[in-house]
Amino acid sequence: MRTLSITLLGAVSAVLMTVPAIAHPKLIASSPVAGRTASAPTAITLKFSEKLLAAFSGLSITPLSGGGGKAATVLKTSVSPDGHTLVSRLATPLPSGSYLVSWHVVSSDTHRVAGSLRFIAR
Ligand SMILES: [Cu+2]
Predict the structure, then answer these.
(1) Quick check: is 7 in a domain?
(2) In the prediction, which pLDDT does 7 show?
(3) pLDDT tens digits, 67-104
(4) What digits encode the pLDDT tens for the residues 31-60?
(5) Of 56, 54, 43, 114, residue with least CA distance to 84
(6) CA 43 – CA 57 distance, rounded (Å)
(7) How far is the CA of 26 from the centre of ligand 1 (A)?
(8) E strand or H helix at 16, and its extent?
(9) Is residue 100 part of a domain?
(10) 24-50: b or e for each residue (b if 16 or more CB lie within 10 Å)?
């Protein structure tokens, strides 16, 4: 009987651990700051509440000004050593204009979250 109880307890614990974590990755900070103006940014960094899986996380950038119909460019990204920040270093500073950054990340609990933010480069 005791063995059965322990087995059940183990099974219940296993189920509880596979219940989706409340902690989906949330964007908690960005550079450039969403909605703000940045001076000739040379990197885009997005900090999340959870650790990210680098292979399944990325971002693209779309210029919103200076003529319509510009395509999104997928930028090369990496994840910071602490696992929380998606980083894209730009070869050259962004020209003046407004931009849309679209991101997607998968956290270490395998949940995918996507979003976007806008900023202005000057
Ligand atoms: Cu989650």
Answers:
(1) no
(2) 58
(3) 666 889 999 999 999 999 999 999 999 999 999 999 99
(4) 999 999 999 999 999 999 999 999 999 999
(5) 54
(6) 16
(7) 9
(8) helix 2-18
(9) yes
(10) ebebeebbbeeeeebeebeebbbbbeb
Confirm whether pTM is higher than 0.85. Answer: no
3-state secondary structure (DSSP) of residue 55:
helix
Query: Which pair of tokens denotes residue 45?
Result: 């960094």
**Rounded to whole angstroms, how far apart are CA atoms 116 and 23?**
19
Distance from the alpha carbon of residue 36 to the mean position of ligand 1, in angstroms: 28
In a domain, 49, yes or no: yes
Does residue 101 lie within any of the structural domains? Answer: yes
Query: How many structural domains comprise the chain?
Result: 1
CA of 110 from ligand 1 middle (Å) equals 7
- How far does the centroid of ligand 1 lie from the alpha carbon of residue 1, in Å? 36
Three-state SS at 117: strand
Domain that holds residue 42: 24-121
Domain of 109, CATH number, reads: 2.60.40.1220
Can you read off the two tokens belonging to residue 60? 């693209």
Query: Where do we find the tokens 């651990």?
Result: 17
Q: What is the pLDDT of residue 23?
A: 75
Peptide bond into 25 cis (omega under 30): no
